[in-house]
Amino acid sequence: MASRGRDRARRSRAMPLERADVARATNDDDKASSSQDVPDDEPTPAVGDTDVNSALGDVISSPLFYVTFGVAGGVGLVRALGENASFLLSAAPVVLLTVISKTSFGESLMKNIDDQRPALVAEKARRENERARARERSSLYGARRVKFLGDAEYEYPAHLDGSLCGDAGFDPLGLGKDDLPRMRELELLHARWAMLGIVGVAVPELLERYGVADLGEPVWWKVGAAKMNSDVSLDYFGLQGFHIAGGSGIAIIAACQVVLMGGPEYARYVGIDSLEPVGVYLPGDKDYPGGAPFDPFKISDDADEFEKQKVMEIKHGRLAMIAMLGVAAQAFVTRAGPIENLASVFSG
What is the dihedral of CA 245, 251, 257, 258, to 10 degrees? Predict the structure, then answer.
């Protein structure tokens, strides 16, 4: 009896990974199918995200949910259940998605996607064809794009042919020669973190400096020490008591961060199909997943605008990475925050 119980437990724990592997294998077949051009005159079944996706899965997996109702709901639960609930609350999204995937409801969601997969793949191929034509028309891609040396005579790397957004022909060390897609994935990942980071560095100091909010310690590189050496509370927008783990010790905050990031990082490792077991089909790729969770305003529906936004994103991301490097260097030299450094330039 005990042996059978252990076998069932092992099968249960393996289930999400097995299901994700099956979905990933199926998605590889989809990619092969979608790489074939769909003739323009061939009718393609119209499939909207809401026709196949689970609304519950869309909500739980949406980044927009976390920065709005997720934060407010988390604060309310911590107030009701106490600070010790913050760690459990951080694990709630991953736990909820896992529970859904193991139920008969989750199996029905997965079956719904499998049943509509041929139409979904055809629709994905149609969109890719539209975007390819948009890149051909755009002056931001291909031979017509602006390169980092302009019209000067220079032998640009052969692997930078203008097919990627933001490709200015700059790779003096040849880092992208052997694995350009991987280098682009890492650049895009760091760019997005830097854009979030520079806002998180500047805004608290601005709010404190102009008396909008009392944050306890607004300078980004001093927050950790302040938290370790005092009972300062890290509240959202400086609103007293409006926090999830910010009132706990630094060990609890770090543990919550590990749990919160563990789920998304695992999903990124599994791939674009990691949410299919909970009924969420993402029509894009690993860099631009799309769908309701990652494109709630449907910007990608317009192929020309989508390709333009990709270029704008990577350019802003590169500026943000340089800005973060500058902010860190200034903090090391001046021992002050970026807003104080900026203000000193104009006041002196």
Answer: -150
Amino acid identity at 65: F
Give, rounded to a whole angstrom, the gap between the first and last alpha carbons of the chain.
79
Is the pLDDT at 188 greater than 50? The verdict is yes
From 160, 192, 226, select the one nearest 310 (Cα to Cα): 192
Cα gap 230→97, rounded to integer Å:
37
Query: Which single residue is written with the structure tokens 């979030």?
Result: 196
- What are the angstrom distances between the C-alpha of 53 and each of 48, 145, 208, 286? 9, 37, 43, 18
Q: Which amino acid is at 31?
A: K
CA dihedral defined by 237, 238, 244, 245, rounded to 10 degrees? 120
Q: Do 306 and 131 form a contact (C-beta atoms < 8 A)?
A: yes
Q: What is the predicted pLDDT for the residue at 69?
A: 66
Measured distance CA(290)–CA(49) in Å, rounded: 10
pLDDT tens digit sequence for 287-326: 999 988 889 888 899 999 999 999 999 999 999 999 999 9
Task: With CA atoms as reference, report the closest residue to 74 among 204, 259, 345.
Answer: 259
DSSP letter for each residue of 53-87 = S-HHHHHHH-HHHIIIIIHHHHHHHHHHH-TTHHH
What gap in Å lies between CA 111 and CA 127, rounded to an integer? 24
Q: What is the Cα–Cα distance from 258 to 91, expressed in whole angstroms?
A: 10
Summarised one tens digit per residue, pLDDT across range 88-115 is 777 777 888 888 889 998 899 899 999 9
Of the candidates 322, 260, 280, 246, the one whose C-alpha atom is nearest the C-alpha of residue 112 is: 280
b/e burial code for range 166-194 (CB count within 10 A of at least 16 → b): bbbbebeeeebeeebeebbeebbebbeeb
Query: Around Cβ 32, how many Cβ atoms within 10 Å?
Result: 10
Our CA angle for 155, 157, 163, nearest 5°, is: 120
Structure tokens at 207: 């709010």
